[in-house]
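Extended Data, panel c. Modelled sequence:
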Amino acid sequence: MELSAEVLRDARFTERFRGYDAAEVDAFLTEAGEALEELVAERSAPMAALAAEQARLAIEEVRQQTLEEVAELQTRRDELARAIADLQLMLADRRRGLAEALALIDAAGEPATDSGDGAVPEGVPEVDADAQGSDAGDTGDQGSGEAAVTDSFLARLERAAAESGGASG
């Protein structure tokens, strides 16, 4: 049988001759039930407080971890923003360099083709014909060195950029 305040208050006994006073037994059972309720409440309060404290500590730990993760993400965001700014500066420098090179070519007024003497115009990167392989602009004569010179300036510039990009990466 489970003992609770309600069970004590509701307990009834059969009356016998020469038995206990029923009113006294009922009063005692009522008092015993109330005392049991107080004990259960007193025992439950610390348990509830402990559970509440454990929940609070768990919430605080999650909050602290979240704050640390947010700080780490903000640091990474700042690093990425700096890297993007650096890349944008680098891109702007390369664009300026390209614009200056194209301005030099335009100022020279010469097409980037063979002048007959085998010399490459000033400001134009020299391209090794043997390292080119077979391109659409090649004449098919790999040994003469004329294939790289007869290419358009843009094709030579793209190859030079690809070679410099391939060498660094």
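The longest helix spans residues 22-108. This feature is highlighted in the accompanying rendering.
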